[in-house]
Amino acid sequence: MSRNLLVRIAFAVPAIAGTLLILSLGGWVLAGFLAILGVLGTREVYDLARKQGIEPLEWIGFVAAAICPLAIYWVKGYADWEPVLYVAAIWLIITHIVATARGPEHRPLTTLAVTVFGPLYASALLSFIIAIRHGPHVDAHPRGSVALAALPLVIT
Amino acid sequence: MWQLAGIGLITAFAAQVGDVAESLFKREVGVKDSSMLIPGHGGVLDRLDSLYFVLPVAAALLRILDLA
C-alpha cells in the first residue's frame, strides 16, 4: 500500500465520521461547518482566478460565502426570506461599487463576476444540503432526514 | 424504491458533470489540484466538486417527489 493511499485513508476515515456526525447534529452546527467549507472553497476559486491575472474582492466574497449557509438555515428554521434577499442585493451593490471604484484598469466586470461566482459556487450550492437535512418531514422522520442528506455524499 | 433509484441515476450523472466542470477550471489555469489543503485529496474544490452539482439536483428531486 503506497504512502499516498495511506494518507488518503487516514484523512478520509475521520472526515467521513465527522461529516456524518455533523449531518446528524444538523442545525447551526451544520450551517457553521458549511460556512467554513464555503469560505475555503471560495478562496480556491479566487486562487484559480488570480492565476489568470484576475483580482477578486476576497474579503467581500468570503463574507458572502460564510453568511450564505447561515442565512439559509436561519430562513429555513426561523424567519422570512425577504430580509435575506435585501441583504444579498445590498451585498451585490457594495461589491459592484468597490469593483468599479478601483478603476477600469483593474477589470471591474471580471472582478465582479469572479467575486460573485466564488461564494455562489462554493457556498450557496453546498447549502442545498440544509434543504434536504431540514426539509418539511424532519420532525416526523429525523433519522430519515439524516439518511437523505447523506445519500448525495454516498453517491459521489 | 424506483424513485430513489431514479434519484441515484440522475445525481450520479450530475456528479460526473460537476467533476468535469471543475476539471475544466483547473485545465484552464493549468493546475492539477485546486490546492493542497486536504492531505492526499487536493483542495476543497477537488473534494466537493461533484457535490456542488449533486446537492441542488438532489434537493429539487427530493422536493418534487415529496421525500424531503
Which structural class do you get from the secondary structure elements of chain A? mainly alpha
**Which segments of chain B are poorly predicted (pLDDT under 50) over 5 or more consecutive residues?**
none
Relative strand content of chain A: under 5%
Number of discrete helical segments of chain B: 2
SSE pattern of chain B, N- to C-terminal: HH
List key phrases describing it.
heterodimer; A: 156 residues; mainly alpha; 7 helices; 0% strand; B: 68 residues
What does this structure look like?
The complex is a heterodimer of chains A (156) and B (68). Chain A is built from 7 helices and no strands. Chain A has helices at residues 3-25, 27-50, 58-77, 82-101, 108-124, 128-133, 142-155. The model of chain A has no long low-confidence stretch (mean pLDDT 90). Chain B has 68 residues and is mainly alpha-helical. Chain B contains 2 helices and no strands. Chain B has helices at residues 2-29, 44-64. The mean pLDDT of chain B is 89. The chains are: A mainly alpha (156), B mainly alpha (68). At the A-B interface, α1, α2, α6 and α7 of A face α1 and α2 of B.
